[in-house]
Amino acid sequence: MRGGMGNMQGMMKQMQKMQKELEQTQAQLNVTEFVGAASNDLVKITMTGDKKVTDVVIAPEVVDPEDVEMLQDLILMATNDALSKIDEATKAKLGKFANAIPGF
């Protein structure tokens, strides 16, 4: 019976260590900047890993008062590109934690 208790304590320590590593990795991701771009960098959106927009850059040549819809589309494309990069990085960095936990 004692062997089982020691094994449980070891597993709890491992889980606590893994939780701390997970929190550190998530904090690191949250401050990492990701840049999404559309149409040869005519529009660039910078976001942090926690999906907060920190910068928007729009090339002057793309600003056409007669074609606002194109600019809107470029902004959407750049935003979605940044979000995709965040999701990919999150899966790459945090996926190892999910794989280490049985049942995930």
UniProtKB/TrEMBL annotation:
<keyword id="KW-0238">DNA-binding</keyword>
<dbReference type="GO" id="GO:0043590">
    <property type="term" value="C:bacterial nucleoid"/>
</dbReference>
<comment type="similarity">
    <text>Belongs to the YbaB/EbfC family.</text>
</comment>
<comment type="function">
    <text>Binds to DNA and alters its conformation. May be involved in regulation of gene expression, nucleoid organization and DNA protection.</text>
</comment>
<dbReference type="InterPro" id="IPR004401">
    <property type="entry name" value="YbaB/EbfC"/>
</dbReference>
<protein>
    <recommendedName>
        <fullName>Nucleoid-associated protein SAMN04488507_100675</fullName>
    </recommendedName>
</protein>
<dbReference type="Pfam" id="PF02575">
    <property type="entry name" value="YbaB_DNA_bd"/>
</dbReference>
<feature type="region of interest" description="Disordered">
    <location>
        <begin position="1"/>
        <end position="21"/>
    </location>
</feature>
<dbReference type="GO" id="GO:0005829">
    <property type="term" value="C:cytosol"/>
</dbReference>
<feature type="compositionally biased region" description="Low complexity">
    <location>
        <begin position="8"/>
        <end position="17"/>
    </location>
</feature>
<comment type="subunit">
    <text>Homodimer.</text>
</comment>
<dbReference type="GO" id="GO:0003677">
    <property type="term" value="F:DNA binding"/>
</dbReference>
<dbReference type="InterPro" id="IPR036894">
    <property type="entry name" value="YbaB-like_sf"/>
</dbReference>
<keyword id="KW-0963">Cytoplasm</keyword>
